[in-house]
Predict the structure of Divalent manganese/zinc ABC transporter, ATP-binding protein.
Amino acid sequence: NGKGIPAIEVRHLTVSYGARPALLDVSVRIEKDQLVGVIGPNGSGKSTLIKAILGFEKPDVGEILIGGEDVQKAKGKVAYVPQRGAVDWDFPITVREVALMGRYQHVPWYRSPSAADREAALEALSMVRMSDFAERQIGQLSGGQQQRVFLARALAQGSDILLLDEPFAGVDAATERAILDVLERAKAAGKTLVVVHHDLATAAEYFDNLVLLKQRLYAFGPPAAVLQEELLSQVYEGRLRVFT
Ligand code: ADP
Ligand code: MG
């Protein structure tokens, strides 16, 4: 069912904060079972695009369809790993409990999480290789380890679409590859993933398609087509740190 309908369709999207549009007339069609990267310099509208696909930011112009239906009706069908801010975990919560938070939509207020909910949370922790940390306080973990737990929480949600905003900030290269492998396995299991990502070396290797943004859509397509030196130097204006 739903064959031929893209997982995400963004049509002529313009989103402004005040006078200046963060995104201007952006159209992208993301097919199912793809791992898609969103690249572009700081302030180019990457997080805004992710938030619009979640229905958090309302378009000035344009529309967004999730599995063919309006984004506002699709709430909960999309899992999200936010860009990491400075989170102060000064209240006690274990890694297992954070992963279990991914199940909240499946747990009505009148009951506790079921054995299946708990199982799904533990399985997600195992996918990101954090099982050994299940009973630890999340506040005691490194930034990279916390990122893996947030990914587990999103995986536990069981949504078909996952949006991740810079999941590799503060993550060492080996862990980045380990997480990219997890994302590839999730794709093989039928998920569609959109990842804001700025390591162009791994972007070329792992992603089916790349979205190159700077307020407008500069390019969309396979990495070999998007990672063209001339195009990148135009968009990044010589501020490109990683390009090998
Ligand atoms: P990126 O994720 O690519 O760094 P963002 O989508 O966060 O870019 O931001 C795009 C532009 O919109 C930037 O110029 C940023 O300053 C602005 N912006 C983002 N969020 C807000 C906000 N809540 N209020 C006002 N301006 C914002
Ligand atoms: Mg951002």
